[in-house]
């Protein structure tokens, strides 16, 4: 998971196709969500683009890191962070999604001069976005607290969907060789960019297969306590892993995400 983001990074002209390049959250309570993430990650917010309705771009030190949008009051969709994968041709990617058994729910559509997007789901129902950059390249700063660090598909069985992602995005796969740990790391040009974690019957029944976004923090235990103070809750307590200390939490509207202090930031 370390050094995960950026086959093309924030200093390059664009993210390499297939690389997670943006994360976005659609919520009902925009003001409360801004307060939660602003306090937790130190984000500030700027409006736009207006084609997405009430939409805010979260920033760290003036650099864009994520997006938060307003759901219509009568639209009761799961509140969840959605990763966007870079594409040179979102229309072609959307066609590939359909050909491989997935579904395109939104788009492809232009977002002013920012770029072109689609929102889709894989054959198991996990939702993700596709972004063809124009003026907006994606997450502009990575590797520091408050930025997306990793994206991981939580599904029943990794082998059931990995071919879909290989075909649609050109991922190369590196399975973990283990009898009791079902995990595949997805690579672009030899660089790890995302993962697929098969959890079998431990898959939450109320969520089904879904993408999980990890955000870097300076101190996982302090962040978990802060989440509780801000009205969120902890789903998995802090634990040490080969990639750093990790916890899984939810914001006040129920959007689940993980926080990590990666091993490269360990003292």
UniProtKB/TrEMBL annotation:
PANTHER family: CONSERVED PROTEIN, GLYOXALASE-RELATED. Residues 19-133, 147-262 form the VOC domain. InterPro entries: Anthracycline_SecMetBiosynth, Glyas_Bleomycin-R_OHBP_Dase, Glyas_Fos-R_dOase_dom, VOC_core. Signal peptide: none annotated. This is VOC domain-containing protein.
